[in-house]
Amino acid sequence: MKARRNKKQVPSFRKLLKTSKVKLENKLKNKQFKQQSTLKKYRKEQRKLRQAVKDAVSKKPIPLEDPKEKRPGKRIEREEEEEEEALPLDMMDEDDLQLMKDLGQRASFLTRDISSSEPVHVKKRKHESVIDKYEKIPRTLQTAPEKELIHLLPIKDKSGIIPQTREKPVIDSNQDEEDQEEMEPEEEIIEKPIKELTLEEHLIERKKKLQERKMHIAALASAILSDPESNIKKLKELRSMLMEQDPDVAVTVRKLVIVSLMELFKDITPSYKIRPLTEAEKSTKIRKETQKLREFEEGLVSQYKFYLENLEQMIKDWKQRKLKKSNVVSLKAYKGLAEVAVKSLCELLVALPHFNFHNNIIVLIVPLMNDMSKSISEMCCEAVKKLFKQDKLGQASLGVIKVISGFVKGRNYEVRPEMLKTFLCLRIKEVEVKKDTEDINKPKKFMTFKEKRKTLSRMQRKWKKAEEKLERELREAEASESTEKKLKLHTETLNIVFVTYFRILKKAQRSPLLPAVLEGLAKFAHLINVEFFDDLLVVLHSLIESGDLSYQESLHCVQTAFHILSGQGDVLNVDPMKFYTHLYKTLFKLHAGATNEGVETVLQCLDVMLTKRRKQVSQQRALAFIKRLCTLALHVLPNSSIGILATNRILMHTFPKTDLLLDNESQGSGVFLPELDEPEYCNAQNTTLWELHALRRHYHPIVQKFAVHLIAGAPSEGSEALKPELSRRSAAELFEAYSMAAMTFNPPVESLNSKRKDKVLQGDSFLNEELSQLIKRHCSQVATQLPLDFTKCLETSLR
C-alpha cells in the first residue's frame, strides 16, 4: 500500500495530447527562470557579504575636524546631545584635558571607526569574527539623507487593511547630463494628453482597423481551406478572434469570425463521425500519413467543440443580459451577436447532421424555437423543418422529435404552436405494422452448402454461387441504408409524435396547440394503429360538439376522422354520418373575403368524404352536397369558385345519376328544404342547379368555362369539354393556381370598352363625306391675300 501511495502518477498519453506544445514550452521556461533567479539571488547575497567584509576591514577613518561641513543634519543633533551629556569644561581638571588631547593625536584612535563603542586598547578575541564586528556597527549613523515616503492606496486583505507606501525618487546632482536629456522626453510623452479625434477621423480609423481584421480573417480562412490537414492549428488562431477586445470593431469582427468559422466547418468536416481512439489503437505503430490524419481529426473535433461552446456562451450572455467586466460589447449589441450565433447553429444543424455534437446543437436549438423573439423562433423552426425534409434515413429527425416532445411536456404544453407544426414536414410515409406470425416475411438468406447439395445439381450450384456473389456486390455498390432500419426509425419517431398529440388531446383540449395537433393527426392518421381508432373518433366528435373549436379546427377534426376511416379504418363498421352532417351544416360559414383559409381544407375533406368513399355514400347525400356547393360558389372569390366547381365536376362523374339536377322536372315526393342541416332528408332531388346560369355571366373567364361545362353535363369530349390543363388538375391545385393573393386576375380579364376607345381616337369617322371633301379642297388651295369683305356675306344672307 505504501508503495502505491508514494508512486508518482505518470500523465496519460491522452492528457499529454490535450496539453499543447506552447504550454509545455512555457512550463520549461518558467522552471529555468526560477532556477536562474534563485542562483542570481544567491550570488548577489555572496557579493554583498564579501563587500561588507572588505568595508569592515579597510574602512577609511572619518576626520574629526569640521564635522558640520560633511555631516549636517543628524550629525549636528548628535553632537548637541553629546555636548549636553558631557561635563562642562570648567568642571574638568587641566590634566584630564591634556590627556584627551594626547589621545586625539594617537594613530590608533584615528585608524579605528569613530562609531565603534569599544575601548582603544582592547585586544581582539579569537572567537569573534569580522562579520560579527560589522553587524555590531549601528545603522542609525549612516550619512545618507532620509528618503521621503509617498502614501499609496491601501490594500484590503483577509487580515485587514494594509497601508502601502513608496519611496520618493531622489535625483542626484552628480547625475550625467545625458541621463537628464533622456528622461525629459519620456516625461513629456507621459504628460502629453491624448489627442481627441473628430467623428470623421474616428470613422476613418475604425474603417482601417476593420479592413485589417477582414484581411487577417480572409488570409487564415484561405490557408485552412487550401490545406486543412497542415493548417488545422490556424483554426485556433481564427477562433481566438472571437474575443476581440477593441471596442470600436469588437462586435463586427466577432460576427465575421462566427460566420467564417461556420462556413469553414461546413467545408472541411468529413462525411463521417470522428470517434475517440481506443488504447490499443494509440499503442500501435502507424504511418506518418495516418498520424497526420489523426492529428487533423482530433484538432478539428476539439476546435469545433470550443466553437460551439463560444456560440452557446454568446446566447447565454444575451439571455442573462449581464454586462461583462471587460465592457467591450454593449448590452444592445448582445442581441445582434446572439442572432448571428443562432443562425450559425441552425446552418450547422442542417448541414452536419452526421458529425459530432449534433445532439448538443439540437438541445441548444429546440428551446430557442419557443423564444420570445419572433425572428429567432422563426429561424430555428425553419431550420428544423429543413432538417426534417432532407433527412431520408430518419436518425437526425428522431433526435429532434425526442427533444421537442420532452420540452413540450416539461413546459406543460405552454409553447408556440409553430413547434408542433414542424412535425408536418416529417418524411414518413410508411411504418412497421404489427402482423401475425404467419404473415411475417422472413428476410432472404443465402442457402448453405448442405442445402445446395441436397436440392441442387452441380451445375445449379455453380449458377447459384455466381448469382449470390453478384447480389452481394450489388448490395455493396448501392451502399444504401436497409429498409428495415429506416422503417424502425420512422416507427419510433411516429410513436413519439402520436404520444405528444394524444397527451394534448387528453390534457390540454383548450390549448392553442390544438389546431396544430389536429392538422398533424389529419396528415398521419393513416399510420395510426387500429387499436386507437374508436377512442380517437369519440374524442374528435366530442371536440366538435363542444363548440369550443374554431371553424378551421373543426374542419381538421372532420379531415382527421375521414383519413382514419379511409386507411386501415375500412375494417371498422362505423357510420360517420355525424361528420357528414357537420360539414354540410357549416359549409356556408366559409369566409367569402380575401382570407379563404378554410377553402383548401374543405376541398380536401370533400375529396376524402365523397370521392374516396364513393361506395359508402348514398345518392341523396351526393345530390345535397352538389347543390350546396353550387350555391356556395356564388359567394366566394373566383379561385374558390373554380375549386368548388371542379369538385362538382368530379362528383358528377363519380355519381352519374346526379345529372337529374340539370332537368326542370322533379322526381319523387316532397319539396327541397335548403335550410335543413341533414343532407339525407333535404329532398335535393327536387331542385335544379340554377346557380350555374348565373355563373355563366361571371367576370372570371375560367369560372364561365366551368359553368358552361357543367350545364352541358360535364362532357369529356366535344365543344363543351374542358381543355387538358383544366380537366387534369385537381380542385386544390386549381384553387392554388388561380389564387388572388397577388391582387391580380389570372388570366387578366379583358376590358369591354377597349373597342370604343379605339373608335374615339379615329376622328374622321365623325365627319360627313361632303364636309370632308370640302375641307380637303380648301386645304389644297393656295392661300391668297385678299381684303376681308363681310358685307357681301351679309347681303346674301339677307336676300
Automatic annotation (TrEMBL):
Keyword NAD applies: no
Biased composition (Acidic residues): 79-93
Record's compositionally biased regions (Basic residues): 40-51
A Pfam family matched in the record: CBF
Coiled coil location: 449-487
Main location: nucleus
Compositionally biased residues, Basic and acidic residues: 52-78
Keywords: Coiled coil, Nucleus
Keyword flag Transmembrane helix: no
Region annotation (Disordered) ranges: 27-93
Compartments reported by the entry: Nucleus, Nucleolus
InterPro entries: ARM-type_fold, CCAAT-binding_factor, Noc3_N, Nucleolar_cplx-assoc_3
UniProt domain Nucleolar complex-associated protein 3 N-terminal: residue ranges: 213-307
The CCAAT-binding factor domain, residue ranges: 554-707
Family in the record: Belongs to the CBF/MAK21 family.
Designated name of the protein: Nucleolar complex protein 3 homolog
